[in-house]
Amino acid sequence: MVVGAVLLLASVLLSVLLGLHRYGMPELWQAYRHFDGSNDHLILTTTRVPRALVALATGACLAVAGAIMQVVTKNPLASPSVLGINSGASLFVVVGLIAFGSSLTLGGMIWIAFAGAIAAAAFVYAIGARERGGFEPVRLTLAGAAIAAFASSVTSGLMLLHKQSLESALFWMIGSVADRKLEHLADVVPYMLAGLALAMLLSGSLNVMALGDDNAKSLGQRLLLSRAAAAVAVVLLAGSSVAIAGPIAFVGLVVPHLCRALVGNDHRWLLPYCAITGAILLVAADLASRFVLMPKEVPVGVATALIGVPFLIRVARRRKHE
């Protein structure tokens, strides 16, 4: 944990200092200690620092949400996108842009995306619920895939019909932490912190759920309550992350598997490790995305996909052989 914290601090500092314009620690110190309104100070305080903090918070939340989803759905390939959260948020943003046009600010887009993420998760859990209470993991996964496919299809259709008004949504829909401000992060931080706190409180219950439904019931686990609380945690974590950074894929898939290789399946340790590792991964991916096509930048969602797709294939093949 200490090594992870040091690596996270180092990655954040590198993200702030490196890029098209490079700075040193003295310039960063002066930007906050003796701000003079220069272009360099503005880049550091209004662009680089908020961007690094958004990547840190988003990566931590997506990774923890993915770890919870893999337990609840009993699917090692599960991630927040399984619930259709990414697709629901994207659909709501596109509808908002059609309705409000250029008057829709980034702050307003964040709240519309949050509403879309919540609505998608609510639909998935309503469909995945069993008749006598509780949730069936297979049905939940299939419901999430269906809602995601439906929302993506509608989004694509709307974008074809309204190309001119939706160009501003393309960069957000790929997944990006650029051009976010501290005010935007402050809007969703309470939901992120609430989701992380709830996830940590559920760590013991997640350990019991991982043993299977029959064993969990014999140990006195209240599955309906535990799964409902887990659903709330996922919605808070993934919904707030998608709202501020767009649908960034594969962080919630890759990080839990990496952390299980380090600390095993005890969620009391796994979730904190996921939070730190997810933050490091997304901050590092955002930093790397600046150098791929310099002076242009690649959205961080593309960088995480380049990492996540080979990992997804590896996990799927390993499960097949097992």
From TrEMBL:
Source organism of this protein record: Cohnella phaseoli
Keyword list, A-Z: Cell membrane, Membrane, Transmembrane, Transmembrane helix, Transport
Subcellular location: Cell membrane
Spans traversing the lipid bilayer: 52-71, 83-102, 108-128, 140-161, 188-211, 270-292, 298-316
GO biological processes: siderophore-iron import into cell
Keyword Transmembrane helix: yes
Any one GO molecular-function label of the UniProt entry: transmembrane transporter activity
Lineage of the organism: Bacteria, Bacillati, Bacillota, Bacilli, Bacillales
Homology family: Belongs to the binding-protein-dependent transport system permease family. FecCD subfamily.
GO terms under cellular component: plasma membrane
CDD domains for this protein: TM_ABC_iron-siderophores_like (cd06550)
Protein name according to UniProt: Iron complex transport system permease protein
Top-level taxonomic group: Bacteria
InterPro entries named in the record: ABC_BtuC-like, ABC_transptr_permease_BtuC
